[in-house]
Amino acid sequence: QLQASGGGLVQPGGSLRLSCAASGRTFSNYAMGWFRQAPGKEREFVAHISFSGRSTYYADSLKGRFTISRDNAKNTMYLQMNSLKPEDTAVYYCAVRLGYSGSYYDALQYAYWGQGTVVTVSS
C-alpha cells in the first residue's frame, strides 16, 4: 500500500528526492516517517511528519540536509535529500505511524512499510 521510489546512484554532494505514494487507502490522517537501513546495520530513523505536515522531526545527524514533506491531496510523502554523503547509502523505507505509545523515532510505532528504494552515494 506504500510505494517508495526515487532512489538511485548519485555522487557525493548530489541530491535526490524520494517519493512515497499510498494506494488503496488514504493516510492523510496519519503521521508518517522515513527510515533507512544500510548494509549490515539496523534500520534507523530518518524523519517524521505529522498528518498535517506542519510538524517535522529529523535524526540529529541529518538536520539541514534532509527535508520531509507531504501532499495529502496526492496521498504522497517526500524526502528531499541534499549534500548526500557515502554514509547515506541505504535502503530507504516509508511507513505510516499508527502507534503513539512510544517515540516518533521508534520503528515499532509504524506499519504499512513500503518495499524500500535503494540510494547509493558513490563517486
What does this protein structure show overall?
Strands 2, 4, 5, 6, 9, 10 and 11 form a 7-stranded mixed beta sheet that branches. Strands 1-3-8-7 form a 4-stranded antiparallel beta sheet, with no helix packed on it. The termini are far apart. It is globular and about 40 Å long. It is built from no helices and 11 strands. The model has no long low-confidence stretch (mean pLDDT 94). The protein has 123 residues and is mostly beta strands.
Explain the layout of strands and helices:
Layout: E1 2-5, E2 8-10, E3 16-22, E4 32-37, E5 44-49, E6 56-58, E7 66-71, E8 76-81, E9 90-97, E10 110-111, E11 117-121
Parallel strand pairs: 2-11
Antiparallel strand pairs: 1-3, 3-8, 4-5, 4-9, 5-6, 7-8, 9-10, 9-11
Return the structural class: mainly beta
Query: Biggest sheet, in brief?
Result: 7 strands, mixed
Helix percent band = under 10%
Number of helices: 0
Task: Offer a concise description of the structure.
By secondary structure, the protein is mainly β.
Question: What key attributes describe this structure?
Answer:
about 120 residues; about 45% strand; four-stranded antiparallel sheet; mainly beta; single chain; seven-stranded mixed sheet
